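New to this. Explain the following:
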Amino acid sequence: MLTVAVLISGTGSNLRALLEAARHPDFPARVIVVGADREAEGLAHAEEFGIPSFTVPWHEHESREAWGEELGRQLDVWRPDLVVLSGLMRLLPASLVARYSPRLINTHPAYLPEFPGAHGVRDALAAGVTQTGASVIVVDDGVDTGPILAQERVQIRADDTEHSLHERIKPVERRLLIDVVRGIATGDVSLDPAP
C-alpha cells in the first residue's frame, strides 16, 4: 500500500478527491497525513476523513530554507512513500526537493510546458490560445519544469473567464492526480526519468 502525504495551501479540492478515491478498498494508496503552510480551509477534509494534519506557517520562519527544514521534519515523522503538492502555493527549497524527489509530485492547471507558474489559467487566457489543460509532474528545482507524468487538454471557450476556465480544469486535474497516484502504487507509472 502506497502511503501519501498531501501538502496544501487552500480549499483542498484535489485533496478531497484523493481522500474519496482512497477510501475505496481497492484503491492501492492511502493518505496518511495532510500538511499546510497556513490555517488552510482544506485541513477540514483531513479532519472529516480522520487523517492527521500539521501546519508549518510560512510567516513564522525567517527564510524559505528554514520553513522547508521544518516542513521536512514534519514529513519525516510520517515517512511517506509519496508527497503530493495539491495547491501548495509555496516553492519548496532545493534541499527539500532533493530529499524527496522524484517521490514528490504536483498538479498544475495548464498543459505544461505551456504556462508554468502561479497564474497558468490567467496566462493561457491572456495569450489568446484556444486550449490549455492540466498536468501532473514530478517536482524538480525549477518552476513546473519536472518530468510530466500525465496531462490532458481542455478547450478554452470564447466566453471563458479565469474562474470559469479554472472550474473546468479542476475536474481534469483531480482525475489525472488520482490516476497517477494509482499508477505509482501499481507500478504502471514510473517516477524514474527515462534514460
Observations:
- DSSP finds six helices and seven strands in the chain.
- The mean pLDDT is 95.
